[in-house]
Design goal:
This protein is an all-alpha fold. It is built from 10 helices and 2 strands, in the order H-H-H-E-H-H-H-H-H-E-H-H. About 45% of the residues are buried. The model has no long low-confidence stretch (mean pLDDT about 90).
């Protein structure tokens, strides 16, 4: 009897957390859907930014109502008062994500014989790239925030409070991977890598940079792949008039049509990035305890 009561008590915390996360998801999805019904007709080049605005507003509202008002989580717990400060955390994340993405592409070119080539004369490339890249860049910035709010914000914090940081990171990473399972050209390898990316971004969330670092890293990775090298991002191609990316013959190395995230190049840089974040967080906690 005592064992049953003990199990029931242990199970109650995770069950309550799941109920809160379901409420958050339902409200966020409903609010996002409502925003998409606003009769606006933006320039087609801004489609990614506009669709992301809707989900940012929807899940931002859900974060405030469910996370702050109803569940009484502080902005610090939700990741928005990082020890680095918001601007510095965001910039550090962008830099880290950009370096990691560039490293993945360099490895794909060097080890997998992928290729990145320029189209046309360099004098014309600057203008054509800019006109295409600005709307996409804004879209990537908002899309990254959308996914961080949906996965690493309130849901990750609420689950971590119930089951611990490690299990919560694994569960949310699995959910992140499954959410990308239907992307174009997805494979078992790409799904594993997306899950590892979820772990990497969770490590960013739990680091001194918190949510701004995770947001910046996510944006830096996606934007560098697409805008810097014209490579597919999670299976989606974003053609640029100035650049062309061609995968090599070995899909397991460079990810093939899914993009570098589908190959071992992403596995290596994601594991390295996660290890770096974990080490940084441990040093920060040690310094804080010693002070």
């Amino acid at each position: 009897m005592t064992a049953r009561v003990s199990f029931a008590r242990r199970a109650r915390g995770p069950a309550v957390a799941v109920a809160w996360i379901v409420a958050f998801t339902v409200l966020g999805a409903a609010a996002s859907y409502g925003v998409t019904k606003v009769p606006l007709h933006p320039d087609p080049r801004w489609w990614l930014a506009w669709s992301s605005v809707a989900t940012v507003l929807g899940f931002g509202l859900a974060t405030w109502i469910v996370g702050r008002v109803l569940d009484h989580r502080s902005w610090e717990a939700l990741g928005w008062r990082p020890r680095t400060g918001v601007p510095r955390g965001l910039l550090l994340g962008i830099g880290a994500g950009a370096v990691m993405a560039a490293t993945a592409v360099v490895l794909a070119v060097a080890g997998g014989r992928a290729a990145v080539t320029a189209r046309g004369a360099w004098a014309a490339i600057g203008w054509t790239w800019t006109t295409a890249a600005v709307p996409l860049g804004v879209g990537f910035l908002l899309a990254a925030l959308t996914e961080e709010l949906m996965f690493r914000g309130y849901p990750l914090r609420r689950l971590a409070d119930a089951v611990g940081t490690g299990p919560a990171t694994a569960i949310v990473g699995l959910g992140f991977a499954l959410a990308h399972l239907g992307n174009p050209n997805a494979t078992a390898f790409s799904t594993v890598n997306v899950g590892l990316a979820g772990v990497w971004l969770a490590a960013a969330f739990f680091s001194p940079g918190a949510m701004p670092l995770a947001w910046g890293a996510h944006f830096g990775w996606n934007a560098t792949l697409a805008l810097g090298f014209a490579a597919p991002v999670s299976g989606y191609a974003f053609p640029l008039p100035a650049l062309e990316y061609r995968p090599g013959p070995h899909q397991w190395i460079d990810g093939g049509a899914f993009g570098p995230e589908g190959g071992i190049v992403a596995t290596l840089v994601t594991l390295a990035g996660t290890a770096g974040l974990v080490a940084w967080s441990r040093r920060a906690r040690g310094a804080e305890a010693a002070s």
